[in-house]
Structures are given as structure tokens and as C-alpha cells.
Amino acid sequence: MQKLAIIITHPIQYYAPVFKLLHQRQNISIRVFYTWGEAAQQKFDPGFGKNISWDLPLLEGYPYEWVENIAADPGSHHSKGIDNPGLVAQINAWQPNAILVYGWFYKSHLKVLRHFKNKIPVIFRGDSTLLDDTGGLKGLLKSIFLKWVYSHVNYALYTGANNKAYFKKYGLKEEQLYFAPHAVDNDRFGIARADEANELRKSLGIGPNEKLVLFAGKLESKKEPALLLQAFAEINIPGTQLLFTGNGILEIELKNRVSLCNNVHFVEFQNQQYMPVIYQACDLFCLPSKGPGETWGLAVNEAMACGKAILIADKVGAGTDLVKEGQNGSIFKAGDLTDLKSKLKTLLETEKTTLFTMGQHSGQIIADWSFTKQVQAIEQLTDKCRKTVRR
Predict the structure, then answer these.
(1) Residue 309: in which H helix or E strand, if any?
(2) What is this structure's pTM?
(3) How many alpha carbons fall within 13 Å on the CB side of residue 223?
(4) In order of start, what are the domains of the chain with their CATH numbers?
(5) What DSSP state is assigned to residue 222?
(6) CB count, 10 Å around CB of 70?
(7) Which keywords does the record carry (predicted)?
(8) Strand, helix or coil at 296?
């Protein structure tokens, strides 16, 4: 059986189920190497401003190893935060046939790409896009560097159209690219939690016939919650409500701006087990991010798996693949208040039944963006590595 070593910083709710499914299917043998080290289990998330410990079992059902991290300031917030002198030896001791590396930004991950080039096949997974590119001299230097980085990669698993365009710009050829869709646990988010969702709306004073717009995520500048608040306030449509779920540096400012409003609500960060209830309580999910760095926006997948209409900015990487204008939602120009107000007004002036129908379309679209599809791509690519490159 082919042996695939997987290099990733820490347990992540969007990838641990993929590793578990790969192990369960037994088409390939996997071992995950967590490079942040064991301390990653209780990590401080600066975006939410608190320690985050997910309420899902992220380490069950697949083999993994912690890798000693000697970084003075360990973490994924800077390139030197992942420093594992023993990583290459630890990988070699397991004797894999191929390596899958998540992200090159970290000191040790880049070292793995360089060390194993032309020794065993190296597969790369990342979700960067060209949406934030500004060109100029900085862009030229970036291009030279990234072409060098990806020259160490045999294949890349791309998440969607924008990510594929990025890999092609920086030197990877069509035959090196395999589609492995960004995914969430569609089944878990799709389980009906109507009673709890209705109870949440009732607790916030939101009537059954009112339309609820949801923002869920970090309250930070990159995600533009303030722009959404301004647009919602200025269009001022009766029978509509806005809910912010999450924490972050803009939290106090946003709350101060709406202190006298009774149709804008705030709920603190909610863990994964309860998030389906939050999504299912709304009629329209909005992610107004301007970036940089909103490479995909997996909250869009989550909202779609809950059967919701979608309104997002064109800087959100998922938009090209997941949002079909007028069918399951709309896309507005990032940072453009006028465009956001126009699209939001159009959606909120439709009947609730129309938003419901859009949400059903969302559910149909997202069904193909699954963990199973991602796992199949990894298995097929690992098998291709066996056929094309030998140690």
C-alpha cells in the first residue's frame, strides 16, 4: 500500500475529517505530522482574541505524530513559528512513498519541500489566489520567488478556480494540478436544527416572518463587518434584522455604533457544534470581506450546507465556484458600499420564499464540494505518484 506522509501545522476542523476518511478507506496508508507541536491544541487566536479549543474530536481515527517545535515564538502567525529540526528524520523513519505538504510559508515546511525534491514525490496543498495581486515591482519579485518555491513541487491539489489560476501563474502546468475541492462537513451542517434555530431567533426578538442577515466570523477589518452594518442601516428595510456572530478587534466599535438599534444583534464566538444552529436561523448569509487573504471563505460552504442564500464580496475566493448570480445569491464589488447596498436591498426586498429557494440551490451546489471528493483526489494523486516517480 502507498504510504503518504502529511505535513501540516496543527489539527484543523476542515482537514482532520479528511485524514480520518483517508485512514478509514484504507486505499492508501497515511501518517500526519503536526509541526506546531502538542502545544497547538490550546492555541490563542488573535483574530477572535481568545484561546480556541474546537469541540470536535480532531485527533481521533487516524495516525499522527507531534513534531518537536523549537521556535522561540511558536505558531502559524509567522514563518519562523514552525521550526522542527527533527522533522525530516521523523518523516524518513516512516519511509513514505509520497509527501503532502500544507503550506510552504513556514521554515520547516519549506525545508521539507527542498529536502525531498527529486527524492520522493511532493504534493502541495494551499488555497492562495490572485485576487489580492497588485502587480508592480513587488509583484514581479513575488512571482520570481513563488516560481522557485513551486519548482520543488511535483503536484498541487487546488481548491477551486481562483486557486488553480494562482498555481498556473506561478509555474505549475495543467497536468500537475488536481482538483480537491475545499469542503466542510456537509452532512453535519445539513442536519435539521429548526427547533434550536427558532429558539435562537425568539431569544433575540426576531419574528418568524422577519428576514435575518447573518455575519459569522472574526470581527476584523479584513472581513468588513462595518461595511455590512453601514449598508444594512442605510437601506433600512422594515422587517429585517442583522446578526453578528463572533468576536474580534472591531467588536466594541460595532456595538457602540448600534447601541440604539433594536434590529442589530451580537452573539459571541460559537464553537463548531452549535454553528449549524446559527446558520439555520438566518435567511441570508453575508461575507463582505475586502481581504487581503480571504483566500476561500469556508463559512460560505457552511452556510450553503445549511441551505442559505449567499451574498459575498468579489474578494472572497469561493465566489467564482459557489455563488451563481440570481440562483443562490449575489456577489458585490469588495469595499463598494453602493454596490453592497444595491445587492443587499434587492435580496432583502424579495420574498422569504425566494431566499428559501436560493438556499435550496446552495444546498444542491455544495453537495459536490465534499470531503469524499477531496479524499478521492488525494488517493488518485498518490496512486499517480506510484506510477510516475520511484525512489
Answers:
(1) strand 309-313
(2) 0.93
(3) 23
(4) 3-183+370-390 (3.40.50.2000), 186-367 (3.40.50.2000)
(5) G
(6) 12
(7) Transferase
(8) coil
